[in-house]
Amino acid sequence: QLQLVESGGGLVQSGGSLRLSCTASGDTLDWYGIGWFRQAPGKEREGVSCISKSGGTTDYADSVRGRFTISRDNAKNTVYLQMNSLKPEDTAVYYCVADLAYGLLCSVTGSWEGYWGQGTQVSVSS
C-alpha cells in the first residue's frame, strides 16, 4: 500500500524559502497525480498545488502562484514543493496526497481522495 511522508517543514522568516518533499514507499508514484494541501489552525484545508503523473500539468492556488513551484522526480518517487517569498499567512501544516483520478489532469479545487501523508509544519514569522 502506498505510504507518503512529508519533510522539509520548519520555521522561517518572512521572505524566506523552504522546499518540501513528499516521498512515497510501498508503490510507485508513476501513475498518480500529486497534490499539496495545507491547513492552518481554525481554517479549512485548502489546495495549494498539484502535478500530473508526467509533470506536464500543474495547478496552483492564486495565493501561491508565482511564489511556489511544484515538481516531481519519479525515479526518486518524490514530489517537491519549492516555496519562495514566504509570508506569515503561509503558516500551516502541509500535506501531500496521491490520487489516481488526477494522473492526467489535476486541479487544486478538486475532491482529492487516495493516499495522504501525515503532514509537515511550516511556520513563517513576520
What does the model show?
It is a single chain. The protein has 126 residues and is mainly β. The protein contains no helices and eleven strands. It has strands at 3-7, 10-13, 18-25, 33-39, 46-51, 58-60, 68-73, 78-83, 92-99, 115-116, 120-125. The strands form two sheets. Strands 2, 4, 5, 6, 9, 10 and 11 form a seven-stranded mixed sheet that branches. Strands 1-3-8-7 form a four-stranded antiparallel sheet, with no helix packed on it. A hairpin with a 6-residue loop joins strand 4 (33-39) and strand 5. The chain starts with a strand and ends with a strand. 37% of the residues are buried. The mean pLDDT is 96.
What are the defining features of this structure?
single chain; 126 residues; mainly beta; four-stranded antiparallel beta sheet; 48% strand
